[in-house]
Amino acid sequence: MKERQLVVVGGGPAGMAAALAAREAGVADVLLLERDQHLGGILNQCIHPGFGLHHFKEELTGPEYADRFAARVLADPGIEVRLKSFAVKLTPDRRISFLRPGALEEVQAGAVVLATGCRERTREMIPIPGTRPAGVYPAGLAQKMVNMEGWIPGREAVIVGSGDIGLIMARRMALEGVLVKAVIEIQKSSRGLVRNVVQCLEDFGIPLYFQHRISMVRGRDRVESVDVVRVDDEFRDIPGSDFSLSCDTVLVSVGLIPENELLEMAGALIDRKTNTPVAPDVNLTSLPGIFACGNACKVYDLADWVTRDSQLAGRMAARYLGVADL
Description:
By secondary structure, the chain is α/β, with parallel strands linked by helices. Helix content is 25%, strand content 29%.
């Protein structure tokens, strides 16, 4: 079994920032594991602008923001990048097992930074009654389909939830010629950034229905329509307020779940409501020498804030290893 000074799991904005900050703080040996075939994580599919305004003081797209860090990571001789490497096991004493093409490897880490990001909530995690036809997608999956694969999921769409991904996909679908009928939000206000509400919905004339929910998905082989109903302050349906929207696509944007199964496997304390580590401060976990950063620690609004806090995680790991002070 090989020994490594620091292992960072995840090559998105959080993992890259943590690895670079650890190197700057004096860590000589960093192993960066990324399950995808490219560094950058979720930023690779976020081709819209709005990144880097705080960190770089200029507006960048997601891939541009990621590329600036990826170039530095790949040029650093002290950081070994393993792509297509999927971490499958973590122990409390910081042993990590990971699958790579053709082999299963195990390393002993002096410290571990988990930058594993989030996964999307799906239709099955919220009460949307109806049939189960084709055409219902998580909004982030649809974003990858459109921006990276070049697939258009449908021609008439309804968005469920007004989180940032849902708002951005409403605009993206409209730009691709899809008729976006509405964004349906059960709360009284949007969960996304105000700038996204303005730039993605108001500028494109896309209706946003607050205090509404989808009460039924209709269709056999493919989505044909959805029923929408207004709800009161207790989320109870208001009789007589229902209406129907014809569509062939429903995009679900109802939140993110931090990916902390590795941390749970290692025996760390996990908040069951948020799936985040239970710890006294950001980036910490209940296990010594194991840190969590980025969306695995808490769900962020901006990649710039992910970078800022993940750099702190890298410095914290360096201090734990005894090579730097914060």
